[in-house]
Amino acid sequence: MSTWRSASLAAAAAAVLALTATGCGQDKGGSGYAGSGNGQPVGNASAAQPGDNAYGSGGGYGQAGGAESAAKQAGQLTVSDSKELGKVVTDSAGFTLYRFDKDTASPPKTNCEGDCAKAWPAVPADGVTAAAGTDASKLGSVTRADGTKQLTIGGWPMYRYAKDVNPGDTNGQNLGGTWHAAAPDGKKASAGAPAAPAAAMPGLSVRKDAKLGDVIVDARGMTVYRFKKDSAWPMKSACTGACLQKWPAVAPVGKNDTKGIALKGFVTFDRPDGVKQQSITCWPVYTFSGDTRPGDTNGQGVGGTWYAVSPEGKLVGAPK
Questions:
Q1: Which of 145, 166, 182, 274 is most enclosed, with most CB atoms within 10 A?
Q2: Residue-wise burial string across 134-143, b where 16 or more C-beta atoms lie within 10 A, e elsewhere
Q3: Are 77 and 129 contacting, i.e. CB atoms less than 8 angstroms apart?
Q4: What is the model's pLDDT at position 249?
């Protein structure tokens, strides 16, 4: 009897040790990885609206614009001045024109089709006049897969964003880290290099938000979030594909590069997709592409599943 009991205790101890060695029980083989089949309510920059699908209205890229939006001519282009973005090209109605990092300018090629093109309607090449004071030779066109001609500036295909509802809106700026308002030469609009912070911030630290209280931020001051559909033990992420573009994984941070946050369960998550992600109290953490400035909390409460993270690694403001 004593021999049998000793063998059982030894086996149990070995099992606990094996789980501990994986770092919060993450499944490195990926067999338990929650893929896109489970769906991720990643939503829009604002709270999800009734009828939105898992990625926000219109199949994951934003509000579907439809064929009518896609057919609107740009007319007389203008250049507006933005404090945050500098000079931005707009159409005759004042709506911002955008470019997509996954396109190419030399040669001009568009990589936004299907649902993407519904959320980011292509600007037709016909009926366009260069903005006053700009180089008209920068205007051109590219033939899309459906045979229509799309406006290019400096070789870059031009788009509108379906969720820009008022002239001057720039709701599409930096979405997914790949969409940018266009400058008059087709480059990314920019007011110049961002000013260096007064002092370098730790990789992860704590910021006091006026509404949410203490929340964790990254080295840029951007709010850090958790996804309720993830799990901590075993460590798994339910955010993949388009979700991960909208909610980028926080890259690994050294423990010595933190300030004021819990370091229990502070391990690197080796995602099955090859991305290495930081975890806090064994929960994978993310930032939100809809947050464009330090201190933004546009991801808070999106889809009822995304919430800022407290210094202890808990969800901030989530319903009990």
A1: 182
A2: beeeebbbbe
A3: yes
A4: 95
Partners of 68 in beta bridges:
none
First and final CA of the chain: distance in angstroms?
47
What is d(CA 44, CA 289) in angstroms, rounded to the nearest whole number? 10
Amino acid letter at 249? A
Q: Which pLDDT band holds residue 208 (cuts at 50, 70, 90)?
A: very high
- Token pair of 9 as six digits: 């205790």
Could you tell me which residues are beta bridge partners of residue 81?
87
The owner of tokens 């090449």 is 125
User: If pLDDT is split at 50, 70 and 90, which confidence band does 38 have?
Assistant: very low
Question: How many Cβ atoms sit within 10 Å of the Cβ of residue 230?
Answer: 21
Closest among 237, 121, 130, 94 to 179, alpha carbons compared: 121
Provide the pairing of β-strand 75-76 with 128-129: parallel
- Name the residue among 63, 35, 69, 67 with its Cα closest to residue 51: 63
Spatial distance between the Cα atoms of 191 and 180, rounded to a whole number of angstroms: 13
What's the distance, CA 183 to chain centroid?
22
CA distance 176 to 292: 11
Give the pLDDT score at 10.
43
CA nearest 112: which of 98, 126, 125, 127? 98
Q: Which residue has the tokens 């004042």?
A: 94
